[in-house]
């Protein structure tokens, strides 16, 4: 704090040239800081990309080994790592330049101040006393200047992290009032699900993905939702779950809801823990559910039976087994409303028909509950109570199977373009 006034007292107005030297270096350091901030962000982006790819490889290491893809994925990881190191190298180089500029500034200040003082001072007075005291003051300033480069380095890193946190915290909050849900089960004959003039989007800024949906589902109804790829079938279930932004309209659901996603979610726990999912174990009901979901023969062959661990993200199970395990978890819960997002897609024709008959269909375990089934297995449609055909995010037509056949509209077009009924449920069971 006292070095500046002492500097002026020693050398007079010529000491002000030190300020000019420091000011002249500010644009350089500002430019370096801006560039380092950009490269720091790039490095963190590449680091995130590398971490995601490495995690994906480790999760699917068995598939990678089976197909001999180690070299290809290694090249991808190394390519991303090279980009990350390039950004890190440039950032470190700029930090070194910034550090050098601060260190050199002390020498430049001494040179300029002594030169100016010698030229403008009366009788060119620069005795040993002034010279040594001035150098001592400059040495004090030099120690103080050792901190700014490291401070700027820390600020740049903190700014990048802060911007990432700010972007995350600025994301839209889920609207708890998007769906008017009631935990009480509705009586027979009442409407269990109702959507009125519903328009939904994935975010408030994006274009709507569902337009003017009007849908009423009575208690105990099996509603099938069909349509071409991208028609909005899964989005309809997301809207019922409250995961979409409601642009306009209203949504109401009565009773506990169970959801089966299109991509099965399995935890690294035993089969019984995945099915019960924190609920009290009911052994007879568990066996009934596993049998209906065609899981009992598989589980019976596992080393530890129902206590066999499924592995991280179900890596010890096939795609069909994971999907049936996800369905079994929902069935075990004994909910009032079931939202089923294409649960038959990853099952072969025989297993898929068994699961539909024993679980989802009119005589299955879920009879009497309200079921909304998104499916591409068109051969099960005759057993549905009601069918909704979606096209481009809107309801093209709805009614019973026979009614829609007589209309010869969108459903007939889907049936004409589909495979033979027996092929509709083939998947990757094996």
In angstroms, what is the radius of gyration? 35 Å
β content, as a range? 5-15%
SS content category: alpha/beta
Number of helices: 14
Average of the residue pLDDT scores: 83
Helical fraction: 40-55%
CATH topology of the largest domain: Rossmann fold
Identify the CATH class of the largest domain. Alpha Beta
| Number of domain units | 2
Shape summary: elongated
What is the makeup of the main sheet? 6 strands, mixed
> Taking strands numbered 1, 2, ... along the chain, how are they ordered across the largest sheet?
6-7-8-4-9-10
The CATH homologous superfamily of the largest domain? P-loop containing nucleotide triphosphate hydrolases
- How far apart are the first and last residues' alpha carbons, in Å? 77 Å
Would you list the SSEs in sequence order as H and E?
A: HHHHHHEEEEHEEHHHHEHEEEHH
List segments where confidence is low: pLDDT < 50 over at least 5 consecutive residues.
Answer: 420-430
- The assigned CATH architecture of the largest domain is 3-Layer(aba) Sandwich
Total E-strand runs:
10
